[in-house]
Design a protein that fits this description.
Helix content is 41%, strand content 15%. With 241 residues, it is an alpha/beta fold. It has one domain (2-240): Aldolase class I (TIM Barrel, Alpha-Beta Barrel). A 9-stranded parallel β-sheet has the order 5-4-3-2-1-9-8-7-6.
Length: 241
């Protein structure tokens, strides 16, 4: 199973972020989602929201993230995805952003507040540069809606395990299997399951035939880092699992 950690850029400090990013890459991450901090992260729970606000206090901007990744181009084995809300991307300029992302080797973008009906121009700009627009689907996403996303989605699809904001949870939601089966019907690209995962034992509750292709973890990793521990230590927990 692919491992996809999420980490907020510039957290807990600007320098420490690059250290943790390197450790994630060196300890088995297949993809790393880098969170672009924003002042109003409506889909995020308290852990990631606090990390985002801390990063903004640290002076983190999208330009700072891109410049840092440019300086480290070629140093990461994992594919790098930028995940953030539309506003910072628009302020930077999406055409300029897609060009810069191509130059520094960004694999894809996840934009939670950009619906399918409004993403055409942005998806086109990314596709021109060979960058993957990554879709999000949830328990309330119908099969028909998933098929509409599947027609344009690339890379992998982010399957949200439960309605609500991000955050650490225990167990798995009762309707998760239905969500995964619906997504499997619609998509031919890998299914990456996220929202609430902190330990590989949580996935053991899913039947073998309903296991996702990848797992995404963010809040638990950020809590771990915020408590003064290393990202590498957190990743080793998943590699053992």
């Amino acid at each position: 199973m692919m491992l996809i950690p999420f980490i907020t850029a510039g957290f807990p400090t600007r320098d420490a972020f690059w250290t943790h990013l390197k450790e994630l890459d060196e300890n088995g991450a297949d993809v790393i989602e880098i969170g672009v901090p924003f002042s109003d992260p409506v889909a995020d729970g308290p852990v990631i929201e606090a990390a985002s606000l801390k990063a903004l206090e640290n002076g983190v901007t999208l330009a700072w993230i891109l410049e840092g990744l440019r300086a480290r181009k070629g140093q990461f084995k994992a594919r790098l995805v930028l995940m953030g809300y539309l506003n910072p991307f628009l302020q930077y300029g999406f055409e300029r952003l897609s060009k810069t992302a191509q130059e520094i080797g960004i694999y894809g973008f996840i934009i939670p507040d950009l619906p399918l009906e409004e993403d055409g121009i942005y998806r086109h700009l990314l596709a021109e540069k060979g960058i993957h627009p990554i879709a999000l689907v949830a328990p309330n996403t119908s099969l028909e809606r998933m098929k509409a996303y599947a027609a344009v989605a690339q890379g992998y699809v982010y399957v949200i395990s439960v309605l609500g904001t991000t955050g650490v949870r225990t167990g798995v939601p009762p309707d998760l299997i239905d969500t995964l089966r619906r997504a499997r019907q619609a998509f031919t690209i890998p299914l990456a399951l996220g929202f609430g995962f902190s330990h590989p034992d949580q996935l053991a509750a899913l039947p073998v035939e309903d296991q996702p292709d990848a797992v995404i973890f963010g809040s638990a990793l950020i809590q771990h880092i915020g408590a003064g521990h290393s990202a590498g230590e957190f990743m080793r927990r998943w590699k053992r699992g």
